[in-house]
Amino acid sequence: MHTLIIGGGAAGMAAAIACARKGDRVTVVERGRKPMKKLGVTGNGRGNLLNAGAPCYYGDQPFALDVLRHMPYENIAAFLRSCGIALTLEDEGRIYPASFLAASAVDALMNTAQELGVSFVLSTRVTHIEPGFAVHAVQTLFAPDTVLKSGRVKPGAPIGEQETVLKADRVIVAAGGAASPAHLTDGTAYEMLTAFGHELVAPRPALCALTAEKAPIEGLSGQRARAALILDGQFASQGEILFADDGVSGIAAMQLARFVKPGSRLVIDLREAIMGEEARMDVDAWLASRPARRMSSLLTGAASPQLSNALLRMARIRPDTAPDAASIHALAQVIRRFEVSVTGTRGFEAAQVTAGGISCAQFDPATMESRLCPGLHAAGEILNVDGACGGFNLMFAFACGLLCAQ
Ligand SMILES: Cc1cc2nc3c(=O)[nH]c(=O)nc-3n(C[C@H](O)[C@H](O)[C@H](O)COP(=O)(O)OP(=O)(O)OC[C@H]3O[C@@H](n4cnc5c(N)ncnc54)[C@H](O)[C@@H]3O)c2cc1C
């Protein structure tokens, strides 16, 4: 059985190793010059590989939960350990390589695949798949690498392209979504599956910074805060935010990107950031108890001057006035509800994950096989599943990849 895997990311590598262990002859066709470029930068280079807590998925959520019933967290962790990756548990169920280096997970998966005899066809972009299967691709050719005086290797420049066709008994499409085109995932791979009749749910950026109307956030760029967020009165998120020139970033804001629509409004509750351990107190009473002769200094010691100025500006309070009940109440309102109009997200270039993708409706969650074309499988982010931040996206990719071998 010759299994051909399109995409050498998390899902593709898990599939390659699992299929090779089962006895298949395995070829991975990867668009980049090396596999797993994205995996190497995940979790800020630390690689948040899995999450041991309750699964948190969007899109075709029941399908994602079925996948994880067939390939539970414990089995995926055991697979990673079997490849030599020592794991460690951090807050909120997040699992990292014990080295806290995503690169060490990349090396371990690569060594395992090579020891099993998996073949790699690199710098090769699959264009389409013919039933049967004939996989059509374009390979980029490079001049030889040069070794510099410093000993550093300078990769050869591209010098041409060559069309190629690879035959296989089984094909696994694990070519990622539309997020982060810098990692060669730009949404062009969907066509490989839509050509077989699989539906595409419109892709949009997820886990991405939000862009916002400038006025409320002016002067706040670079300010961090712990906050509770509510988008459009229904989608909640909590944690660190980072104000930027063009909007709001940080994990808590990024988690909301998948829900953004035209006219979205974001309410930022800044009580925790400003009141700390006293955040449960009545904000008016807390402000009234603070020692200050001017509104401008009421938040000194609790908020940065930039944040204090922005809050006073939004509450329409003159900084040089003395605190009175009306001004304190207006400021308290803004601390509880710092409201910004969201204009969108920073787009796929800045997104970590894709919401939307190929509908899971026509795939079997036990094997990831297409119900429209026997022998064709899909795995990972190319599918209409996106997970919360915290290791859920890589976990889904690994789970799908492993199921392809069953
Ligand atoms: C900066 C960043 C940080 C992240 N951090 C985390 C984290 O800590 N934890 C977490 O769970 N998730 C994280 N994610 C998300 C996670 O990396 C992805 O969801 C996951 O890698 C998806 O795995 P995949 O195998 O489906 O696709 P990918 O890892 O995207 O791999 C797809 C592969 O297919 C190749 N390819 C694409 N098109 C073709 C083609 N036509 N022919 C051949 N090959 C092709 C690509 O080059 C790529 O190597 C992060 C993402 C980014 C961008």
List its salient traits.
406 residues, alpha+beta, FAD/NAD(P)-binding domain, Elongation Factor Tu (Ef-tu), domain 3, binds flavin-adenine dinucleotide
Describe this structure in words.
This protein has two domains: 253 residues, FAD/NAD(P)-binding domain (3-Layer(bba) Sandwich); 136 residues, Translation factors (Elongation Factor Tu (Ef-tu), domain 3). The chain is elongated. β16 and β17 form a beta hairpin. It contains twelve helices and 23 strands. The chain has 406 residues and is α+β, with helices and mostly antiparallel strands. The chain has a six-stranded antiparallel barrel. α1 runs parallel beside α12. The structure holds flavin-adenine dinucleotide. Flavin-adenine dinucleotide (FAD) binds next to α1, β8 and α12.
